[in-house]
Every structure is written in structure tokens, then in C-alpha cells.
């Protein structure tokens, strides 16, 4: 649990460093995107494949730690929908902060979508197992009526 918490704090520092650092050189090139798919389509249409992979893949990878660490740090956040909602809300706040306070950065809904997809991927691949390993399922009184006896199968 402590390792996951330290990992989450470390991830928050890296996230802040990557997303909230000013970029005065790109200020003239930036524009906000509130239409899902616009930025993704723009990257896929450009001839520089390396930049496309870096931008799209980087945003997906940026979300993966949420899917891995959130179920371990916050057991009530376990579940595909909960991880997705928590990640989408967190990344939307990061994007809003970028657009409002950081020079050369703007809000991009596609970044939120890609980050959330990464978190869901991380949760499905390993986060679910990690969460259950650290926080086993609780056994409620009604489980004795709903669970089958292994001898009956």
C-alpha cells in the first residue's frame, strides 16, 4: 500500500511536470479543442508518423498509472467505470488548468479521452489484480445465500 501511495505521488509530480510546464515557443501554434476526435484526426493525417505516435501514445501511456495505482490506493475506486470516471475528471481538471494558467498550453478534450483510455487499459491489464491483491473482496452476510458450494459443482 505504501509503495502504491509513493508511486501515485511520484506519478503526480511527473504529470505536473509534463503537463503544467510553460511552452512559450508553441504559444502561437496552440488552440483549444472541445470537439472529440479533432486533434486525433489531425495527428493521424500529418505525414510525421513519429510525432503522431509520440503524441497519441504518450497520452495513452500517461493514463496507465491511474489504472494501475488508483485501485490500490483507493479501494472504493475499484471497477472499470469508477477508474474511468476518476481519470476523466482528473485529466479534465489538468487540461483546464493548462488552458487557464500555463503559457503555450490549451485545453484538448482528446487528451482527456486518450488519458482515460490508457487508465482503462492499465486497469484491465494489471490494476484490477493489484487492487484485489491488496484489498480482497469483502464477504457480506448475503454472500452465503448467493455463492455455490464447490462440492455441488
From TrEMBL:
Any single Pfam family the record assigns to this protein: VanZ
Transmembrane segments: 56-74, 81-101, 113-131
Residues in VanZ-like domain copies: 12-125
Xref: InterPro entries: Teicoplanin_resist-assoc, VanZ-like
Leader peptide range in chain numbering: none
Keywords: Membrane, Transmembrane, Transmembrane helix
Protein's organism: Streptomyces kanamyceticus
Protein name in the entry: VanZ family protein
Amino acid at each position: 500500500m505504501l509503495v502504491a501511495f509513493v508511486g501515485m505521488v511520484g506519478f503526480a509530480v511527473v504529470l505536473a511536470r509534463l503537463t503544467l510546464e510553460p511552452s512559450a515557443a508553441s504559444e502561437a501554434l496552440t488552440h483549444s479543442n472541445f470537439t472529440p476526435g479533432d486533434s486525433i484526426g489531425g495527428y493521424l493525417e500529418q505525414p510525421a508518423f513519429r510525432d503522431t505516435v509520440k503524441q497519441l501514445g504518450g497520452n495513452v501511456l500517461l493514463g496507465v498509472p491511474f489504472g494501475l495505482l488508483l485501485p490500490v490506493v483507493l479501494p472504493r475506486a475499484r471497477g472499470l467505470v469508477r477508474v474511468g470516471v476518476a481519470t476523466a475528471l482528473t485529466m479534465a481538471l489538468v487540461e483546464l488548468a493548462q488552458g487557464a494558467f500555463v503559457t503555450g498550453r490549451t485545453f484538448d478534450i482528446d487528451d482527456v479521452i486518450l488519458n482515460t483510455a490508457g487508465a482503462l487499459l492499465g486497469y484491465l491489464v494489471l490494476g484490477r489484480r493489484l487492487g484485489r491483491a491488496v484489498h480482497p473482496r469483502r464477504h457480506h452476510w448475503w454472500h452465503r445465500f448467493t455463492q455455490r458450494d464447490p462440492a455441488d459443482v
